[in-house]
Design a protein that fits this description.
Layout (H helix, E strand, L loop, with lengths): L20 H4 L10 H6 L5 H8 L1 H12 L10 E2 L7 E2 L4 E2 L1 H14 L3 E6 L5 E5 H17 L8 E4 L4 H13 L3 E3 L6 H11 L3 E5 L1 E4 L2 E4 L1 H9 L8 E5 L13 E3 H4 L12 E2 L3 E7 L7 E6 L1 H14 L8 E4 L6 H13 L3 E5 L10 H9 L3 E4 L1 H10 L2 H4 L8 E5 L5 H11 L6 E4 L33 E4 L11 E6 L14 H9 L6 E9 L5 E6 L3 E4 L2 E4 H9 L4 E11 L3 E10 L1 H6 L3 H18 L8 E4 L13 H8 L15 H10 L3
Parallel strand pairs: 4-17, 6-7, 6-8, 8-11, 11-12, 16-17, 16-18, 18-19, 19-20, 28-29
Antiparallel strand pairs: 1-2, 3-13, 4-5, 9-10, 14-15, 21-22, 22-23, 23-24, 25-26, 27-28
The structure holds 5'-O-[(S)-butoxy(hydroxy)phosphoryl]adenosine.
Length: 673
């Protein structure tokens, strides 16, 4: 915990779009499930009963009914090496077999797995039988390229069918994948490749974004040219945009050259339940991203269980669409592993929601008759801003269930989603979880829970979550505190890649025996949980996690910057926005004293952050200041900077080493240039 920690838990952003304690106390609307929905729902109240009666037996039952095991397990949970759990450890299985082959074997080979829609409007339909052939071919190709069970493969791709095939091919041979979001920079890619010591990188020439081809391969070339990426032997490149690409002979290989001609017969590698399935990097409170490790059996069990019950999936009739990118955990669990394990038919869309027009998503819902839609509050707020008439121009009557994830959804956005997208009837599931939890943890169950706009409400059957105070006491209803998870769960992370100590320190040292999630939360009078945002130095911008420290390091790595402090400020659309305070070196400070100079410095630094981390991390505002507010121990008091960034009266500054600093900062910002 840092000095910037609020004494009593409070949301990071004081107003704007995140729900504050204040307005949540006034939220009293509830929406009980309709009788028709409840009558057909997968989930029933008995799930809670069963899980409460015998939690481990409950999970064993889920694992046995939702997955196909090669060797059955006999032990459900081994927690003797806590906080590293082992679930179903003596069983063996294969994730790709569960996601694909067994559906074909069960006679569903003709069922559509994906309706792919490229941003330019090109389409491709792929059935489960097609997917089985593609994944088998790719698995053979990976083996041919020297990838062995246990080797790490980095996937740096746009949203294509091949991206899913690449992930499943890795799973099929037991080579853990590490997907790096295509919006990350070459530097960010290199550090992830280096940390995972990846042997192979799978990428594409580029993808379509906002109406134009956007290159990816050059970033891979740049990443591999730098130090630390020596482990990479081959680069497998999918042709998508047909842009010119630089080619390194002996290293680079076209996907169509090695995959298309490979045999479509492949025996999956049966792995132990605890075999690593993937590593996914996420930002923490320090500059170095954490490689979150997930294993096979437990992860797949909870991904499938939550997808079936929270989204009420009926594989024969539903068309499910999750708008996330596969570069984030939502894409892993709710595009690849959960839905495919359940045999779902999905929409996979390559591009942005406003290309070529702001109704593109709703056009796709109409076209494919999407019945279940899962997206993030930031996207909902953007659509709200674009106007009600846009979704009103499409037939959205196929939608019967809506989901939200990534950040607290403010009640206004929730109500808009319900009215304008869900036709006033579709239940909304607000799902709380994290990269670390692997799958949904807190959410209403559709057909069972009466929903409340803005609240994720209740831990799922089988999950134990609570809100506690500083001393780990559960807070009474009506009070706030910190969200903790009190029992191990199947899809929990098994550690941070290569750094077990950091795993223990980050999640398990704050409270004895409890997993500390890093979120503030409140229990209302009914005991329902309301998430209030991060309580650590992690920001949430458009549902993406960004570390203040990481952006500060990026800024300071620029020659003109002497010191930097970054805060997340409440933002109407993105939830939080990155605001940076920088002290410039010598003559650059003078340069920034004029309006033109300041604008120039801002552009320079914003581009620098985009290059170091990626465009998503670009500060929205950069304020040049003479000093930063620090405590006597030298910690930056971000709370005070947040007050400035959110145009609030600056709070209590008495613990500052130099109490005049805030006046100097304020004077500088107001001074005419
Ligand atoms: C953090 C995890 C889980 C996939 C997307 C983000 C915030 C996530 C909710 C929600 C309130 C939420 C939390 C959490 N968060 N879902 N429904 N309500 N906050 O994954 O990048 O690992 O971020 O996102 O702050 O700790 P992630």
């Amino acid at each position: 915990m840092t000095d910037t920690q609020p004494a009593s838990p409070a949301p990071q952003s004081g107003g704007g779009s995140s729900p504050s304690l204040e307005n949540l106390l006034h939220e009293t609307r509830t929406f009980p499930p309709s009788e028709e929905f409840a009558a057909q729902a997968n989930a029933t109240a008995e799930l809670y009963e069963a899980a409460r009666a015998d939690r481990l037996a409950f999970w064993a039952e889920q694992a046995n009914t939702l997955l196909t095991w090669r060797t059955p397990f006999t032990e459900t949970l081994d927690w003797s090496d806590a906080p590293v759990a082992r679930w179903f450890a003596d069983g063996s299985l294969n994730a790709a077999y569960n996601a694909v082959d067994r559906h074909v074997e069960a006679g569903h080979g003709d069922r559509v797995a994906f309706h792919f829609e490229g941003e330019p409007g090109d389409t491709r339909t792929i059935t489960y039988a097609d997917l089985q052939r593609e994944v088998s071919k790719a698995a053979n190709a990976l083996t041919e390229l020297g990838v062995r069970t246990g080797d790490r493969v980095v996937v740096y791709m746009p949203m294509l069918i091949e991206s899913v095939v690449a992930m499943l091919a890795c799973a099929r041979i037991g080579a853990p994948h590490s997907v790096v979001f295509g919006g990350f920079s070459a530097d960010a890619l290199r550090s992830r490749i280096a940390d995972a010591e990846a042997k192979l990188v799978i990428t594409a020439d580029g993808g379509y974004r906002k109406g134009a081809p956007s290159a990816l391969k050059p970033a891979v070339d740049e990443a591999l040219a730098g130090e630390g990426a020596e482990s990479v032997e081959k680069v497998l490149v999918v042709r998508r945009t047909e842009q010119e690409v630089a080619w390194t002979e002996g290293r680079d290989v076209w996907w169509h050259d090695v995959v298309d001609g490979a045999s479509d017969q492949h025996e999956p590698v049966w792995v132990e339940a605890e075999h690593p399935l993937f590593i996914l990097y996420t930002s923490g409170t320090t500059g170095k991203p954490k490689g979150i490790l997930h294993t096979t059996g437990g992860y797949l069990t909870q991904a499938a269980y939550t997808h079936r019950n929270v989204f009420d999936l009926k594989p024969e009739s539903d068309v499910y669409w999750c708008s996330a990118d596969i570069g984030w955990v939502t894409g892993h669990s709710y595009i690849v592993y959960g839905p495919l394990t359940n045999g779902a038919t999905q929409v996979l869309y390559e591009g942005t929601p406003d290309t070529p027009h702001k109704g593109r998503w709703w056009e796709l819902v109409e076209k494919y008759k999407v019945s279940i839609f899962y997206t993030a509050p930031t996207a909902i707020r953007a659509c709200m801003k674009w106007g009600d008439d846009i979704p009103a121009g499409f037939d959205l009557s196929s939608l019967r269930l809506l989901g939200s994830v990534g950040e607290p959804i403010n009640p206004e956005a929730w109500m808009w989603y319900r009215e304008h997208i869900g036709g006033g009837t579709a239940p909304i599931v607000d799902t709380w979880w994290q990269t670390e939890t692997g799958a949904i943890m807190i959410s209403p169950l559709p057909g069972v829970t009466a929903t409340k706009p803005g609240s994720a409400q209740v831990p799922l059957p089988g999950i134990s979550a609570d809100v506690v105070d500083d001393e780990a006491n559960a807070v009474p209803n009506g009070s706030g505190g910190y969200l903790v998870l009190s029992e191990p769960w199947p899809s929990m992370l098994r550690g941070i890649w290569g750094d077990l100590e950091r795993y223990k320190e980050t999640y398990w040292s704050r409270y004895e025996g409890l997993y500390f999630a890093g979120d503030g939360a409140k229990k209302d009078d009914d005991g329902d949980i309301w998430l209030l945002g991060r309580v650590d130095d992690v920001m949430n911008v458009s549902g993406h996690r960004l570390s203040t420290t990481e952006i500060e390091s990026a800024l300071v790595s620029n020659d003109i910057v002497a010191e930097a402090a970054v805060v997340g400020a409440a933002d109407e659309t993105t939830g939080q926005a990155v605001v940076a305070f920088v002290i410039l070196r010598g003559e650059h400070a003078d340069r920034a004293a004029t309006d033109d100079g300041a604008a120039e410095v801002q552009t320079e630094l914003r581009n620098h952050v985009a290059k170091e981390i990626g465009p998503i991390a670009k500060p929205k505002r950069i304020l040049v200041v003479p000093e930063l507010p620090k405590t006597r121990s030298g910690k930056i008091m971000r709370r005070l900077l947040r007050d400035i960034a959110e145009d609030r009266q600056v709070g209590d500054a008495t613990t500052l080493a130099d109490s005049s600093v805030m006046d100097k900062i304020a004077a500088g910002l107001k001074a005419p240039s």
